[in-house]
Amino acid sequence: MSLRIIRKKPDTRSSRGSLDREEGGLQPPTGNQHIYQPVGKPEHAAPPKKPPRPSAQSQLGGLACLNTGDSYNDGVKPWRLQPQEISPPPTANLDRSNDKVYENVTGLVKAVIEMSSRIQPAPPEEYVPMVKDVGLALRTLLATVDETLPQLPASTHREIEMAQKLLNSDLAELIGKMKLAQQYVMTSLQQDYKKQMLTAAHALAVDAKNLLDVIDQSRLKMMAQSRPH
């Protein structure tokens, strides 16, 4: 099968101008890239294999790869948070089999990832249900932390409570950016506020992981105090 090479001209439009004219569009390849097209009847190719879905255990690891930047040349829609299935970051060596805090942090991260995968093409009327799902996941997490707090050393309570307040602030920021994205619908500013929505959601997920780390350290401190000397 013979191949012919089509060289694409470099795109001279700026990122902002491209987004203003075509919401969610992908930037064409740069001048150094080529597209290979077969001439004649193409052979039947096997359908591509679907990538494995990230497991619940790997969702926290995906935090390291949540991307809110302008990713055009990697085949990714702009401003979309991109979870990747990687090894979870180091956490305390604790039994997670019945760890409700860990489960609810993972649930919150999954809600953020779900919102990120839907926000770009979604119409404004769908913003509220998506943000509401994130808010419900956060409320469940904070309720679980409140139930866990009396079991932890009193000296660690203030740090945990401060981490909870930060999460509430993150949610308020997300809601504020959502309202602005709705207010400026059909304008170039809508894309900016969508980006800011995802940035706020990303901060919420990262701060949830930080809350888990604080609670883990409190648990380790309690375990150390309970050991006989």
Automatic annotation (TrEMBL):
Molecular function terms, GO-annotated: protein tyrosine kinase activity
SUPFAM superfamilies, from UniProt? FAT domain of focal adhesion kinase
**Basic and acidic residues bias locations:** 8-24
Point out the signal peptide segment: none
Q: Name one GO cellular component term.
A: focal adhesion
Q: Where is the Focal AT domain?
A: 91-222
BP term (GO), one: signal complex assembly
Q: Where is this region: Disordered?
A: 1-97
Tell me where the transmembrane regions lie.
Answer: none
Q: What is this protein called?
A: Focal adhesion kinase 1-like
- Report the source organism: Stegastes partitus (bicolor damselfish)
Source organism phylogeny: Eukaryota, Metazoa, Chordata, Craniata, Vertebrata
